[in-house]
Specification:
Pfam family, one: KH_dom-like
Radius of gyration: 25 Å
Distance between the termini: 50 Å
Number of helices: 11
Structural class: alpha/beta
Strand content: 15-25%
CATH topology of the largest domain: Rossmann fold
Function: GTPase that plays an essential role in the late steps of ribosome biogenesis.
Shape: globular
Subunit structure: Associates with the 50S ribosomal subunit.
CATH class of the largest domain: Alpha Beta
Strand order of the largest sheet: 2-3-1-4-5-6
Binding site for GTP 2: 188-195, 235-239, 300-303
Helix content: 25-40%
Largest sheet: 6 strands, mixed
CATH architecture of the largest domain: 3-Layer(aba) Sandwich
Number of strands: 17
Domain EngA-type G: 3-168, 182-355
Length: 446
């Protein structure tokens, strides 16, 4: 699984700038989950071949008074620290040491979580002079960096990853499930009925929803078989035995959901008919699409809504989740075990589509037929020329098209090609990525 790094520090030390530097974005991939403040974001980062999950937090005041906004921000920061494998404690090299820095350092020392102390905004300062006072915090070596300019960021990440306990070597692949086993993740907001659905599948109520900080790394996998097909369920709800249950919905782990999606072949995105399609649902769906995972949509508690509510949620699906129009949609009741059988058929179909093999001759012929039917529009005085296509990967399927001036192909034409390829290969329930490779002109420099 991807290691998780939390950025912690008092306000205005440059945590968000560092987050953007690490993720290569200006915002998080996933945000605005229930109970999360606007200052807590999740994103994907990379150092070398190693991918990481980075959590940005708001200004941290461990001893903030009850009822204040800083109290709520501190609560979210504690959750981020609990979900993480290593903490990057950011201080301000220009503003110097503060009493609040001491409070945060005391909190982190008590936790015993692996920690890296980073002095940000150190660009242009004399080496060593900008960090010496931060040794008072008792957290060991102080790393000077500049998040705005990228100085020292890579070495900081490498040192942080060295402190992650049990992290496998960079070139060691994630262990695969045995051949023929479909890894299935059930994703969705808290209380949409994920564990009720799993219990209905397994035929007994031996699993219940449970989650708490500190259990994020315990990936729970439930093996089961249906009609001769083996599955491995990747838990996103935190499955435990009945005796271990207590109410902890407010401690829903975003990291666990992101990791489960990354490790799955197929994701079943479960929605709640009584609440409609929320921003949280759209964020999770967006992350599934970005991860390239095959997906099946299921609306749970369909029996609990009237005709008007059903019409409303169908409209919300069309608008908020329009980017998942390739996915099958099912209306179910996990509690009453209604509509569950067709879901399995769609899961198998989505997995088969994600792993579909497409021959180069057939792809090239389909490409040529598509161009003959509708040529790409002219751009810049010329028309893009598409010569041949081949498959560039699976899960998700990738089609690589070669030709000239393909950087001028508009998005609308790419969608046209995607529709033609999907229909020809019966690709249902999986994203399809089309990449263009433009040939270099050998006479360009002459």
């Amino acid at each position: 699984m991807k290691p998780v790094i939390a950025l912690v520090g008092r306000p205005n030390v440059g945590k968000s700038t560092l987050f953007n530097r690490l993720t290569g974005t200006r915002d998080a991939i996933v945000a605005d989950f229930a109970g999360l403040t606007r200052d807590r974001h999740y994103g994907n980062g990379r150092v070398g071949k190693r991918e990481v999950i980075v959590i940005d937090t708001g200004g941290f005041e461990p001893d903030a008074g009850e009822g204040s906004i800083y109290r709520e921000m501190a609560k979210q920061t504690r959750q981020a620290v609990a979900e993480s494998d290593v903490v990057i404690f950011v201080v301000d090299a220009r503003a110097g040491l503060s009493a609040q820095d001491h409070d945060i350092a005391n909190y982190l020392r008590r936790l015993g979580k692996p920690c890296v102390l980073v002095a940000n905004k150190a660009e242009g300062m004399t080496s060593g002079a900008q960090t010496v006072e931060f040794f008072e915090l008792g957290l060991g070596e102080v790393l000077p960096v500049s998040a705005a300019h990228g100085q020292g960021v890579r070495s900081m990440l490498e040192i942080a990853l060295e402190r992650v306990p049990g992290l496998p070597p960079e070139d060691e692949d994630e262990p695969e499930a045995e051949p023929g086993v479909i890894r299935l993740a059930v994703a969705g907001r808290p209380n949409v009925g994920k564990s009720t659905l799993i219990n209905a599948w397994l035929g007994e109520e031996r699993l219940v929803a449970f989650d708490m900080p500190g259990t994020t790394r315990d990936a729970i996998k439930v093996p089961f078989e249906r009609n001769g097909q083996k599955f491995e369920l990747i838990d996103t709800a935190g499955l435990r035995r009945k005796g271990k249950v207590f109410e902890a919905i407010e401690k829903f782990s975003v990291v666990k959901t992101l990791q489960a999606i990354e490790n799955a072949h197929v994701v079943l995105l479960l929605l709640d008919a009584t609440q409609g399609v929320t921003d949280q649902d759209a964020h999770i769906a967006g992350y599934i699409l970005e991860s390239g995972r095959a997906v099946v949509l299921a609306i749970n508690k369909w029996d609990a809504v009237d005709a008007y509510q059903r019409e409303q949620i169908e409209r919300q699906i069309e608008t908020r989740l329009a980017f998942l129009k390739f996915a099958s949609l099912h209306l179910i009741s996990a509690r009453k075990r209604q509509g569950l059988a067709p879901v399995w058929k769609s899961i198998a179909q989505a997995h088969a589509s994600a792993m579909r093999k497409m021959s180069t001759p057939l792809l090239t012929r389909l490409l040529q037929e598509s161009v003959a039917f509708q040529a790409p529009p002219r751009s810049g005085g010329g028309r893009p020329k598409m010569r041949y296509a081949h498959q560039g990967g699976m899960n998700p399927p990738v089609i690589v098209i070669h030709g000239n001036a393909l950087d001028r192909v508009p998005d609308a034409y790419t969608r046209f090609l995607e529709g033609r390829f999907r229909k020809a290969f019966d690709l249902v329930g999986t994203p399809l990525r089309i990449e263009y490779r433009t040939s270099e002109n050998p006479f360009k420099e002459m």
